Amino acid sequence: MISLTDTQKIGMGLTGFGVFFLFFGMILFFDKALLAIGNVLFVAGLAFVIGLERTFRFFFQKHKMKATVFFLGGVLIVLIGWPLIGMILEMYGFFLLFRGFFPVVVGFIRRVPVLGYLLNLPGISSPT
Fold first, then answer.
1. Please, what sign has the CA dihedral across residues 50, 17, 104, 58?
2. Closest among 66, 71, 106 to 92, alpha carbons compared
3. For this UniProt entry, what is the primary localization, expressed as one broad class (predicted)?
4. What is the pLDDT confidence band of residue 103, given thresholds at 50, 70 and 90?
5. What gap in Å lies between CA 40 and CA 5, rounded to an integer?
6. Cα dihedral: 64, 41, 75, 27 (round 10)
7. What φ, ψ does residue 60 adopt, rounded to 5°?
8. Could you give phi then psi for residue 84, rounded to 5 degrees?
9. What is the CA radius of gyration of the chain?
10. Is residue 2 scored above 80 in pLDDT?
C-alpha cells in the first residue's frame, strides 16, 4: 500500500471535492459558483498532493505552455462568470496537459472487473 503524508491526504480530499463540485456544477447546467469552487479545490488539491514546486514545474514546462494557458484561462473565465466557455477551454487544456496519463489510466481500468470487461469488448478494444 502507498503511504501518504498528512498533506497528501488533505490534497486527495481537496482534489476529490474539486472533481465532485465540477461534476455537480456541470450537472446543474454549468452553475458558476459550483464550477468556481470545484476549480479552486482541484488546483489546490493538486498542489497539496505533488507539492507546490512540482505543481509549478508541471504547469509551466515549455512544451506544455499552450495547455496551461487554456486550462488556467478556462479557470479564470469560469471565475469571471462565463462557465460554458470556461469549461470548454478548461477541458481542452486538461486534455492537452494530461494526455500522457490517459494510456496509464486506461490500462488500470482494464484491470477493474466490470469496467475491464467492457473495455475489452470487440468494438471498443484496440487491435493488437
1. negative
2. 71
3. Golgi
4. confident
5. 22
6. 120
7. -110, 35
8. -65, -50
9. 16
10. no
